[in-house]
Amino acid sequence: MIARIIFLLIPMIVLSDFYIERYFLRNHPRYTPVKRLFWWLPGTLMLLFCLALACCGKFVPDDIRWIKAFLILLGIVVVPKTVFAIISLFGRLCRCSRRNGRRWNLFGIALGIICSLTMVYGVLIGPQKLRVTRLELAFKDLPEAFDGLRIVLFSDAHVGTFNNGWEHLLQRDIDTILAQRPDMICFVGDLQNTQPAELLPNMALLSRLSKQGVPMYSVLGNHDYSQYFYGDSVAKKACEEGIKTLERRMGWRLLLNEHAVFYSKDKRDSIVIAGEENCGVGHFPDYSDLSKTLKGVDRKAFVVLLQHDPKSWESRILPKSHAQLTLCGHTHGGQINLFGLRPTMISYHDDYGLDEKDGRFLYVTCGIGGLAPIRIGVDPEIAVITLRTKK
């Protein structure tokens, strides 16, 4: 993970230190060689930490606490200096254009401190929150036997991130899901970070979801394939089969481009729960097959479609199926929301929340976890969706 953004991290670490030394420290009479050593020491250690994570031979370390520590130190050591340097440089450009830019330094200091505290909050506190989102959606073609059907949706567990100290948060999430008294539970992908072994410490906990007499349906997300697992083709194949085996061992009904029929209590009516494999765009794996997923499904049937990536809703699901409700995850809601702006809004038309077109609905949940354990303004979420028959 760090290797993919190292081209951004190294300039942040090095250039901000160089800029501050060049314009604020170098000419100071008390800036001795010893003080210069202490000035460059934190940045040098961060640079070494960054390179060590980038060269560790895995997408992320097995112990996610290394990533948490790196993000906290990044927020304390690097972010405030980077923000100050950018603001101060802008102020210098203003002075060069004969405008008063001296106050930009004070503004840079204040903004740097705010950004630092925000990032530390995002790592230490943000991931520990949980929000239950409740929606009621009405459909003309929903059989009356399913009026009031309660679906509990969650996604992007990234269970490996809960290991080594945050297992109690996963316990809380499972308890919260079951406390909603669901008629069915749906999980829409990214159960692991990179490999199935991450699930082993929490197998008993995750198995509780299927042992309450409530149907538990799931699909795979991009992290549930071997894209982020470093190994040869044999090891990658074992990784992909391993996550499937563990989900089934936990009693989850894993849908791989297939569908299941959910019957009413009197067995007279039914709806279809369809699960499509990940519909990747760009560098994400694409194993989706919508026609195979819905093969044999009557055009009059009410379909709840599970798909990890919401980009497929407008590009494939709407034009090529009649699925009335599509449930997705993948985006994590950007994990950062500042003044209503999320980074995922740049590349995703539907990056979070509810969308509707011609009486057909999409809900994208921001998930309960994440590979990078940081949440700012986007609380982990469990969604409770109640279906209603439109009279």
Please give the structural blueprint.
Blueprint: H1 6-25, H2 33-54, H3 65-96, H4 103-124, E1 131-139, E2 150-154, H5 167-179, E3 184-187, H6 203-207, E4 216-218, H7 233-249, E5 253-254, E6 258-263, E7 270-275, H8 290-293, E8 303-306, H9 311-320, E9 325-328, E10 353-357, E11 360-364, E12 381-389
Parallel strand pairs: 1-12, 2-3, 3-4, 4-5, 7-8, 8-9, 9-11
Antiparallel strand pairs: 2-12, 6-7, 10-11
Report on this structure.
Helix content is 37%, strand content 16%. It has 391 residues and is α/β, with parallel strands linked by helices. β4, α7 (233-249) and β5 form a beta-alpha-beta unit. α1 (6-25) runs antiparallel to α2 (33-54) and α1 packs across α3. It is elongated and about 85 Å long.
List keywords for this structure.
single chain, 391 residues, alpha/beta, six-stranded mixed beta sheet, 9 helices, 12 strands, 16% strand
Structural class: alpha/beta
Helical element count?
A: 9
| Helix content bin | 25-40%
Total strand segments = 12
Rg, Cα atoms, Å: 24 Å
**Contiguous runs where pLDDT drops below 50 for at least 5 residues:** none
Summarize model confidence as the mean pLDDT: 93
Biggest sheet, strands in spatial order? Answer: 1-12-2-3-4-5
Distance between the termini: 50 Å
Instruction: Tell me, briefly, the overall form.
Output: elongated
Major sheet summary line? 6 strands, mixed
SSE run: HHHHEEHEHEHEEEHEHEEEE
Sheet-strand content, in percent, reads 15-25%
TL;DR?
This protein is 37% helix and 16% strand. By secondary structure, the chain is an alpha/beta fold.
